[in-house]
Amino acid sequence: MPDTPTRAVRLGALVLLLRPTYVAAEVVTAAATTGGYSFLADSVSRLGEVGCTAAYCSPRHEVMNGAFMVYGVALAGGALLLARPLGPWATGLLVVSGLSSYATGLAPLDQDATLHALAATPLFVAQPLALLLLGHRVRRTRPRLAKALLATGVLTAAAAVGFVLSAEGRAAGALERAALWPVLLALAAYAWAVGVRGTPTRTAQ
Q: Residue 203 pLDDT > 50, yes or no?
């Protein structure tokens, strides 16, 4: 029988269930850009650029940078609230991911590209690893969810590598989003299983 979720677990699950709304921040910000913005070719970071030129401007950059920070805090906080079912390693990796997202919002790409890269890189490494570990952890108690988490971990890891290798190529935006957006859904699915439906305490050893 599944355990009844604690108040902390329910709150943490709610936070992760709300995180897919992050995509709306990208859409709202992109809608206001001038000079042309492509979700397929352009990186998410371009939406947070502060400076404007005749060729490109993102007037709502504060929305994007604020989203990096707010949703980063949500990820770290949600992970800490869900620390018991997540386990220490997945929790730690998700906290690192959240802090990385927060730091990215403080370091816009056009202000200091090196600092921006340093801030953002842990997110692309830690999130796939967290999904892989989490998939392994629940493989006996929730095999279908485990398969989804493992598949998403592999997908996002491959997309992150592809994004780095693309060097702002024609599919850079698509690859970056393939590395980020599925994580939102995978963690929301996990949050639903643990925080709403409840999950057995027995996990893979």
A: no
- Predicted model pTM: 0.91
Distance CA(9)–CA(187), nearest Å, equals 13
Which position has the token pair 């404007």? 52
Angstrom distance (rounded) from CA 142 to CA 14: 20
Does the pLDDT of residue 202 top 50, yes or no? no
Q: What is d(CA 70, CA 113) in angstroms, rounded to the nearest whole number?
A: 21
- Provide the 10 A C-beta neighbour count for residue 64: 24
User: To which residue do tokens 């959240």 refer?
Assistant: 98
The whole-angstrom separation of Cα 58 and Cα 82 is 36
Instruction: Give me the pLDDT at residue 195, please.
Output: 83
- Whole-number Cα distances in Å, 169 to 50, 125, 173: 22, 21, 8
